[in-house]
Amino acid sequence: MSKDQTSSLESEIEEIRERLAGTIDELIYRGSPKTIVQRQVAALKAVYVDPVSGEPKMGNIAKTVGGVVGTVVLMATLRKITKVN
């Protein structure tokens, strides 16, 4: 193998190492619990707040409140029914 080929291979190996190091750093960042929590909070906020205007999305808020109220009413009704018998 000539000196030029060896030099070329060494530089190619170094480039690959740098890319792998960057990829590993990115994976560590994406997989950190803090980053995951930040992504999930942002996703949840996007459901209830318009990211462009900052206004609340009343339709989604109303659906969530309706679901919570419905669940509470259902649980109260079931408790009442089971206590009577």
UniProtKB/TrEMBL annotation:
Pfam families hit by this protein: DUF3618
Q: Please indicate which superkingdom the organism of origin belongs to.
A: Bacteria
The name of this protein is: DUF3618 domain-containing protein
Organism of this sequence: Nocardioides luteus
